[in-house]
Amino acid sequence: MKSNKRIVLAYSGGLDTSIILKWLQENYNAEVICYTADIGQEINRKKIISNAKKFGVKKIIINDLKNIFVKDYVFPMIRGHAIYEGIYLLGTSIARPLIAKDQIKVAKKFKAFAVSHGATGKGNDQIRFELGYHYFGPKIKIIAPWRIWNLKSRSDLINYAKKNSIPIPRDKKGASPFSVDDNLFHTSTEGKVLENPKNSAPEFIFQRTVSPEKAPNKASYISINFKNGDPIGVNGKKLGPAKLLKKLNDMAGKNGIGRVDLVENRFLGIKSRGVYETPGGTLLINAHRAIESVTLDRETMHKKDAIMSRYAELIYNGYWFSKERFKLQKIVDSKRNKINGSVKLKLYKGNVIIQSRITKSTAYSMKKVSFEENKSFIKSNVERFINSHKKKIRN
Question: What's the pTM value of the predicted model, to 2 decimals?
Fold first, then answer.
């Protein structure tokens, strides 16, 4: 008898989620709906659809979220200058809340009783997905196969795939593969030789950046145009959010910009080593800080810097939809209407060099900073200013 119960599975069409799809069908008396969020990752729509249909899946949903991802998630994060543990631009972390939100939207549309994901039991993504699920669909059941099934290793998965005639990619036979996550903002690579922090990252794992040594010997130049704190164009040409980020990715990647190798502290308490490529994001965060330096007052900039670490930690830990993150975002955006102008960058062999900052803002005063004598800055006030702080330092 056909079940009227439904589960919405976050489905990539690859080995892991194909195994999860089959496992859900075996263990739950429910129809499985396959859901894919297109946020700019390398995606093969035909493969996703054909692989799902092999399992008898009737509903296969692929939603294009690229512009929403960049405009409503990446750009607000850039405005907050969010960097986790001083180096990570949060490329994986920022994508999960959007996927969770849209997946719950699909679940509600089809009256599904549950949603499911393929995040492992040791990683951060299970937390990010499930906090998002809870925020938008607290009554919808969450099925996390990696925490409840009997498949304990990559070998178990391979054997399960063989038993159920699930195609196994050639690079996943034998040893565990590199774990790769990508979207329009970044690519992350973990596992295999990278698990030992003493090993150097092999060059072949990099997907969107050339090595600085092989980057052009001639510098490239690019201008990023800002309005109300967000990038709106490149070299004076207005571009939509997704196209703008893609343009910056291409330019930065060709010049060896955006590589990071780090050992990070996961929310669950495990240390992990990963290699991240965030070429366009590296340009954006450098340019955004540069345009803020000539458009915002000292107090606003320093207040933003003071909350940045906590803001980044909230994103990393999956708290994008928390009251605390919303509160910090208001601080971040309090004077974003003043952040207008353009920044010219020089790109050369992995380096991002600020060339110029152009704005109509009067926050930066040429008269006050000039070494030439002028009446706009009263030097006699400086002594009183210093004396007032001498009193404070003793208190």
Answer: 0.93
